[in-house]
Every structure is written in C-alpha cells, then in structure tokens.
Amino acid sequence: MMFSLAATVALVLSASQVESDSERIQDGFRVTDIGPSLTVVADTEYGTNIGLFEKDGAILLIDPMPGEERLVALAELIKDSASGQVDCILNTHNHEDHSGGNAFFAANGAAIAEVSLEVCNAVFSESVQLITVQSHTDEDILVFVPEASTLFVGDVFDNSWHPTFYAGGLPGLNQAIDIIVDLANDGALIVPGHGRPAKADVVTQFRDNTVEWVTLIKRLHEAGMTVEQIMNVPEVEVALQRFNTERRDPFIPQRAYSRFVERTVEIISG
Ligand SMILES: [Zn+2]
Question: Which of 13, 25, 157, 203 is deepest in the core (most CB within 10 A)?
Fold first, then answer.
C-alpha cells in the first residue's frame, strides 16, 4: 500500500515538473521555452507576448513592449536565455504595447524590420514567413516560424480579452483566422498578442464565439435597443463570458464592456 501511494505521488510530481520546466517566472516575466530556438516571454504589465527566435547567433525579437525599466529587465533576460544579439525587431502591428520597445533595442544596434527590412532579410528570410492581414489593424503581420512550428498572430487573436477586430470587421477576422488555421493545421502553436498560446481549435472557437457575438448584438441593435439595454441582456453576458478563457472575475471593467458593445454596433452599421 505504502509503495503504490508513494509511486502515485511521484507520478503527480513529475507531471507538474514537466509544466514548470517549459514555463517559469523570471524577473516579472512569464517565460515559456517553445523549443531550442524559440522562447515566448509574457510581460506581466502589458500582458504582451514577446517572441525571441534565435538563428545563427542572431536574435529576432517580436513585439517588444514599452517601459524603460521593464525593457532593461527584458534585455537582461534575453542575455540569459539566448546566445546572441537582437539583430531584428518585428512588430505584429504598430500599437504601443507591441512596438513601444523598438527604440530601446534599436539604440542597441537592432534593425527594425519596418525601417530596414534588408538587415532582417539577410538573416531571417529563409526561416521566417510574414503574412499581412487586416483585422485588428489595417496592417496586421502574422509571423510564422516553421522550424519551431509557431505562429505569432498579434491581436488578431487575443486569448485573454474579447476580440478587437475593428479594422477588418467580421470579413477581415474570418480571412485572417482562415489563414492562421491553415498555417497551424499540423499542430503548430499559435501565440496570441495576449494570453496563453493555443492550438488551432481554440482559435476556431474564438472565431465562432465572435460570429455568435456579432449576430446577437446585431439582432438586439436592430430591435432598437440601446447599448446599455444590450449590456443587460443575460444572453449577451453569457456571450461575453465565452471570451473569458482565464476565468477572471470580473472579466473586464464595465467601461470596456460598454465600449465593446458600442464598437460592435459601429462595425454592424459601418
Ligand atoms: Zn495588444
């Protein structure tokens, strides 16, 4: 009896060990090693997922967040986790929480892909694929790293918030998700702008939830309801909670909720 109990405990321990091996907290960052050449670093202040891809001693940095002190900490962490220098910076889109750290790393010799693509191409053209879509912003860049089987999609997919598909509406979101699911259909990891990385089925669910949300808001809006009335419909609250994958309580501030309904109505009307 004692023996089998001990064996069970040992098994449980080793299972949780596996998880903590690939994910650790370091200096306020959640660090996940995806493979030998790729690491995802989640900044705790902005929640932005930052990518570090190493190739031949060069490092591609994806979506550095802003914040003077935090950037110093990020630079230290890069020194610890990778063997090389940041040569190229890519941004999935130009919002501050994904590009605010560009200047900091550029001052230390990194090229910003948007400014000097040839420097980035020299090292990464064979190993990184860029696809432009229009969903969260007018120019969203999907960053695919086939050898690490990982796709960075920025805020086209957010795994910790409601969808923000304000530039492309539903057609833009659908088109972008089709491309994402297609690229990741062999089991590739999809790294959202914020929240935990996921597989294609989770992204498909996110799209389905969004379509359902828009359909519902459209019906209520066309029935003449105001934003405030729509917010208080129990069905709408349920539809909102489908995006609450982290089970936060409350999920989002009331102001963010009304803004989400307002912007959805704008998309339907526009
Ligand atoms: Zn963002």
Answer: 157
